[in-house]
Fold this sequence. Notes:
This protein is of the alpha+beta class. It has twelve helices and twelve strands.
Amino acid sequence: xxxxxxxxxxxxxxxxxxxxxxxxxxxxxxxxxxxxxxxxxxxxxxxxxxxxxxxxxxxxxxxxxxxxxxxxxxxxxxxxxxxxxxxxxxxxxxxxxxxxxxxxxxxxxxxxxxxxxxxxxxxxxxxxxxxxxxxxxxxxxxxxxxxxxxxxxxxxxxxxxxxxxxxxxxxxxxxxxxxxxxxxxxxxxxxxxxxxxxxxxxxxxxxxxxxxxxxxxxxxxxxxxxxxxxxxxxxxxxxxxxxxxxxxxxxxxxxxxxxxxxxxxxxxxxxxxxxxxxxxxxxxxxxxxxxxxxxxxxxxxxxxxxxxxxxxxxxxxxxxxxxxxxxxxxxxxxxxxxxxxxxxxxxxxxxxxxxxxxxxxxxxxxxxxxxxxxxxxxxxxxxxxxxxxxxxxxxxxxxxxxxxxxxxxxxxxxxxxxxxxxxxxxxxxxxxxxxxxxxxxxxxxxxxxxxxxxxxxxxxxxxxxxxxxxxxxxxxxxxxxxxxxxxxxxxxxxxxxxxx
Length: 500
């Protein structure tokens, strides 16, 4: 039992869907934070690298200028004051400049009467560690007093530029140029930028939350409205309108599609109700007649053979009518579901059409109808003969039902360039252009009130459409209000006709 409950819980978790609002909001928020992180890292790295590269380049140029100045004769104002000259260069270039001996002792610049070996000045004038590093770098670069090579390298807190200078005094010992430029400023800037970037991130996160929430709401609200309206439509409310004033272009397209589907469903629902009413009436009428005449046989006819035969004949006719109705409904259902496969064969369409017309002969003999047929002989086609028989019968019967007061129907069968054209025309009231598409619907039936000599349920044209679509034949209708309609089908030419 517990295992089943756990499985049910897992299944429920798998079926639990994430809200679209949350997905959109999370996407906006993550995108904002990602952009902020990329900007922060890029800004920090670029700022540091750019500043340090600029510091190296600047220190190199400054060091070269200082090196040249120290090897040349100082200006007259500094003739006997090398300490002042070095302090001047240090102030001009904005960096620390020292002349060191081989032990790292500061030779210049010194103030007068200042003893650099005094304990109070010891740390400030002690470059013993720095001179070791400088001499090692100069040795690695092969720098000497003669070739005037220089070195530039990084140390803690900045960069050093150095070179070998001529002897400071008569001892002949080399002296060294030591310049230092700090990069502590850029690190202080980085720290400040990091703090500001943190506050910026907090602000951007809050802002992205608000903006993404607003955008998500604007995107989701139309979907929520459409969902509510769709539920109303599912309950049978065909007056619902899926359009909205503040919908985006895509939502407008969706609402237009849903409105179209709603209209079609409304038409289908209305026609279905009409069909049910028509079929119910058509079922009820023959059943009532069958019951009534059966009672007449039992109660009235008695031993009167003529009355019994008349009542039995009516019962048979009504039973046939009922069977025809059931057959139409079943045929339409089977054809649409694909249960009935097409039995393709080549047959004489001309002869088959003449046989079909003969079934309407009673109308010309008893009710004054005129069936004007123009049939070209020996036209063969390849199709399901029984299904095409239904097509021909239904189209001719439809024309008979809706022709004008002259009771005239024209039937044409002739060969064209690469097909056989069948057409049947009536002289009735015609069909409005906006109704042409709906006449093929299985629930469509004209509301025109007149007697129909050929009984039907309104399924005839739908059966025609379904059969011809299964055959992939071209068909259609041309109609002019007040002048009548012409239904046509283009049949392929059969192999027998091609061989002949």
